[in-house]
Each structure stands twice: as structure tokens, then as C-alpha cells.
């Protein structure tokens, strides 16, 4: 077991011990066991949180990462500080965005300051080239996507709901990374826990729009049901293949946030719930 030293202006965790470096990382923060799901592809510090290991109460119990859902701000600050520590970032070195289901991409050159993880502005993706800085997005069914670019020495975090998938917010992010020297053949992409095809149902013109954009396999029709199931991770993986990324460059975690009670789910919990944080630290 190796010890990880966290540099922070706030109090350091009493004991931060990484038990496993691959797969779901089991991390002890003080007396509380916390876990980050990690990708087999990414080599920089990163993780996808679940809802356990924080201090929030009620429907936000316990590792809620959002101040916009009605939770106590002090609890959210503590939760975010713990999450930043798990990837080796100081609380004042975590940059996030105010997600609006669009395709805007922001570059983080520093954290905004003020509260831990304060949003830099309206966007659905954020990247950084600053060593030591972590970037993150919040989700509770939408897709969290983390990108590592070892050539351009930069990392990105992307939030993609169905609007962001159709609008190709991930493609917009890759375009920004390429402007800074990224090569598509060297990128590593991890798609984290999200609502899966088993639970994501749509109707109206959405099935036809998804089929037109990603092919017939992206939708699943069930006899006797008017609504159609859509596979959002498959749609994203398809768009990455269309850009030239190979299967070995993309890791899709299979966890369904609506099915699995370990996660916050906007759909399952009728909107009264917390948010997970998916974050990655630039460590080049």
C-alpha cells in the first residue's frame, strides 16, 4: 500500500491510502471509505464518483457535487475537496463549468477561486494544459466523458446529455484539443457511468434523429411500447470511430446510473437528487 501526499491550502486528509491502482480505486479518506471508478485506458489521475463517501444528507446523501440542487453549500464544499484530493489536486485546483446542454468548450488556466470547484462559465466541456489542475463535470444520468491527450499534454472533461450527443459536444472538444497539438490516433477516451439503453426511453422525433446521426443500432424498439430505447454510449463511440479513433482508444464503463442505486439518477429520483463528479488532473 502506497501513501499519497496531498498538497492543499485546506487541511489535508488524515490518511489517503490507495489500495488498488487499476479498476475501481478503493480510497480511504480519514475514517470514510470512498471509491472512484477508473478507466483501464487513462494513465493520468482521474475518476468517476458514485454517491457514497461524502457528508451531504437526505436526497443528496452523501457525495453530492452540486450546489444547484438545494444541498447545503458547506457540505458540497467538503465533498468537492475530498474528490479533488482523490486525484491529487488541491481544493483550489479544481475547475468546472456551469452545464447548459450545449456544445461550448472552455479552457481552464486556473480554478475560478471562491468556493471549491466554482464554475468558470456556461459550457459543457472544459480542458486544461496546466499541470496540477483538475477539470470536472457533474452528472446524474448524462454521459461523463474524460479525455487524455499525451501528445498535446492536456486533459478534458465533457458533459453530454442527449442534446450534447446529437450536437457533438465531444467532437467540439476534440477540435479544441487538436488546435493545441493533439493527434487523434494518440487520444484516450473514457465514458463513465450514465443512463444506459435499458433505461433511456425517448419518443417523438428523437429516435429518427438518432438513427440518422448514428445508424439503426443506436435505437432499440420493444414490441408493444411506444417509446424507443436509445443507447447514448454507443452513439458517442460511433461518433469517435467516425473521427478515426480505434476501439482500443475508447473505454465505455457499463454502469447504468438509473438501475444502480450506487449512483444519483435524475430520472429514477424524479429530479430530487444529487450529482456525481467526473474529474481528471493534468499530470504531464
What is the compact description of this entry?
The protein is an alpha+beta fold and 284 residues long. The protein contains five helices and 18 strands. It is globular and about 50 Å long.
Description:
With 284 residues, the chain is of the alpha+beta class. It has a single domain, classed as CNF1/YfiH-like putative cysteine hydrolases, CATH 3.60.140. 18% of the residues lie in helices and 27% in strands. The chain is built from five helices and 18 strands. The chain has a nine-stranded mixed β-sheet. The protein has a six-stranded mixed β-sheet with strand order 7-9-12-11-13-17. Strands 14-16-15 form a three-stranded antiparallel β-sheet. Strand 3 and strand 4 form a beta hairpin. The longest helix has 14 residues. It is globular. The two termini are 24 Å apart. The N terminus is likely disordered.
The fraction of residues in strands falls at 25-35%
Tally the beta strands.
18
Largest sheet: 9 strands, mixed
Shape: globular
**Tally of helical segments:** 5
- The unreliable regions are 1-22
